[in-house]
Amino acid sequence: MSARQANVAGSNWRAMTVDDLASVDVIAARVHPSYPEDHAVFAERLRLHATGCRVLMTGGEIAGYVISHPWHLGEPPALNALLGGLPEAAATYYVHDLALLPDARGSGAASWIVAQLVRHARDLNLPSLSLVAVNGSTPFWTKQGFAAMAAENCDSKLASYGADAHLMRRLLS
Ligand SMILES: CC(C)(COP(=O)(O)OP(=O)(O)OC[C@H]1O[C@@H](n2cnc3c(N)ncnc32)[C@H](O)[C@@H]1OP(=O)(O)O)[C@@H](O)C(=O)NCCC(=O)NCCS
């Protein structure tokens, strides 16, 4: 087993709970200072689709999180906006955020959880995953099989994520 694989095995993603939200808030503020979102936004995602919300444990501490849920294709929620509910007929599996503290990066834990999200999206019979790539993360998502998609009719919502935001999709065959 390589050192990288050992690190991945040592990392531990587990289901997020309401009690984890304070730590998620702290990590979000540190990792995404330019994309502030209210506690209520994360709490609502967790309530609406707990299966898509997980935290990364390293050394007994929360070192990252992922928040994701079924959604409409090509209609990313605006930054810091409540959803109100999930669509009855979702068209994509939307990755709202994947964020790791700097010390937790580079172990493959992010790739590992993306693979789990792909599996979950397939289980839900959804034909794609999609997201808004920010923070210069487009090369990471490209490595995960995502490609830019046209952002028709969602320019204002995309703009809420800043000028370097890109709508991306990974088709599932
Ligand atoms: C994006 C993020 C989750 C990736 O985490 P990570 O721990 O570096 O990811 P992994 O270790 O699983 O790396 C997977 C691969 O992507 C590559 N990679 C990761 N970030 C990259 C980047 N910014 N540019 C290019 N390649 C990148 C890694 O080198 C690795 O390549 P390899 O498989 O050939 O070795 C992490 O950097 C992060 O939390 N960033 C801040 C928050 C953020 O921007 N999230 C995305 C919001 S849309």
From TrEMBL:
Q: Name one Pfam family in it.
A: Acetyltransf_1
Organism domain of life: Bacteria
- The residue ranges of the N-acetyltransferase domain are 11-173
The regions listed as transmembrane in this protein's record are: none
Protein name per its UniProtKB record: GNAT family N-acetyltransferase
**Which source organism does the UniProt entry give?**
Bradyrhizobium denitrificans
Print the organism lineage. Bacteria, Pseudomonadati, Pseudomonadota, Alphaproteobacteria, Hyphomicrobiales
